[in-house]
Amino acid sequence: MGTPPRSPDVLRPALEHLVKGIVDNPDDVRVRMINGRRGKRLEVRVNPDDLGTVIGRSGRTAKALRQVVTGIGGRGVRVEILDSY
Amino acid sequence: MAETTTDVARGEASEGRTTAGVDTDALFEQSEIAADYVEGLLDILDTDGDIDELVKDDRPIVEVVGEGLNQLVGPGGATLEALQELTRLAVFRKTGEHSRLMLDIGGFRSSRRAELQALAKKVADEVAQYGNPVRLDPMNAFERKCVHDVINARKDVASESEGTEPDRRVIVSPA
């Protein structure tokens, strides 16, 4: 509603900020935007100790992260959460 | 650039504690951490918004006011709810406290509360008049509380919630 579409460039730093703020090891957070054949995806890598936090009970936190990404202009961009480096 | 202003409503608090024994300094710290987290997001999104931090009724509150915030509210407040959940987690990480922090963006919650108060009054009047219980539509926790607060203030009706999220509803019955 009157808001111009957000540049996809902000999705990566926005998601990185949201994840860094909720984990015990923010320096271990890596977020990459990947342009795959099946569309764009944001790949979030966190310290294995923080994986449970970022996914949450029944995937609740992961769902909240996806909802915010969709809300800020990332509709159709998948969010993948991984614990490997 | 998002700007932060602070305002602590201490009420009857003495020595930083309310009569309920809640540490208002701790609650204020929660609202500060929450405001920093939200402000960081607004800065990345290059969204203008004034951020107010306050403690009201023993609850930390962060309110973002400004234009162009609709995206952060989302359909039916879905994005706002998600952001509130993440913000509570950010507070938990820094304090170890499970926070009851309330986040409002663009006045969404205050206008939704006003709608629900009007609905609750109308339903309560009907229940009191006709004596039949009424089941309301499914609501989230914030919305149910808005309704319960209206019903609890009356003597002629009572309310309870039933069902599980996201289909949890308020039932209003004659007292």
From TrEMBL, chain A:
GO terms for molecular function: RNA binding. It comes from the Bacteria. Its main location: cytoplasm. The keyword Cytoplasm applies. It is found in: Cytoplasm. InterPro entries: KH_dom-like_a/b, KH_sf_prok-type, KhpA. The keyword Transmembrane helix does not apply. Keywords: Cytoplasm, RNA-binding. GO terms for cellular component: cytoplasm. Transmembrane segments: none annotated. Gene3D superfamilies: 3.30.300.20. NCBIfam families: PRK02821.1. A probable RNA-binding protein. Belongs to the KhpA RNA-binding protein family. HAMAP family: KhpA. PANTHER family: RNA-BINDING PROTEIN KHPA, UPF0109 PROTEIN SCO5592. This is RNA-binding protein KhpA. It comes from Phytomonospora endophytica.
From TrEMBL, chain B:
CDD domains: KH-II_Jag, R3H_jag. Residues 1-22 are annotated as: Disordered. GO terms for molecular function: RNA binding. InterPro entries: Jag_KH, KH_dom-like_a/b, KhpB, R3H_dom, R3H_dom_sf, R3H_KhpB. Residues 110-175 form the R3H domain. This is SpoIIIJ-associated protein.
